[in-house]
Amino acid sequence: METLNLKQLSDNRAELQTKGDLDAMRDIMHEEFRYVDSSGRQFDKETFLDQFVDPASVQWISQDTVTFDETVSGEIALIQILLEERFILGTNAYEGRFWVLHVYVKENDKWLWQGGQATMINEL
């Protein structure tokens, strides 16, 4: 049962992000949110929203989950995802596969996205 809930949460996060729903994304993110992108840049909650959610900054073409795996221990969930993404950031178009680790914490019976890290996958 937990797997289905976390998969739905992960899919919901992706949908909110690609739609540019800043308020709904803010609601599912932990106040101490931290993220490291595939270029090694670090983001807190507001800078992540500004860079990767706000439609004024990013235009999402697609973000598709290829694989999904989770490990849950008490109030912490680690989710490993292989994503295929296409988006335009500023004047640059990006397309690629990314291995992503997302961390969720459960507070007051609600899972919140704590943060994560992305690595671009170079396929030969």
Automatic annotation (TrEMBL):
<dbReference type="InterPro" id="IPR027843">
    <property type="entry name" value="DUF4440"/>
</dbReference>
<protein>
    <submittedName>
        <fullName>Nuclear transport factor 2 family protein</fullName>
    </submittedName>
</protein>
<dbReference type="Pfam" id="PF14534">
    <property type="entry name" value="DUF4440"/>
</dbReference>
<feature type="domain" description="DUF4440">
    <location>
        <begin position="7"/>
        <end position="112"/>
    </location>
</feature>
<dbReference type="InterPro" id="IPR032710">
    <property type="entry name" value="NTF2-like_dom_sf"/>
</dbReference>
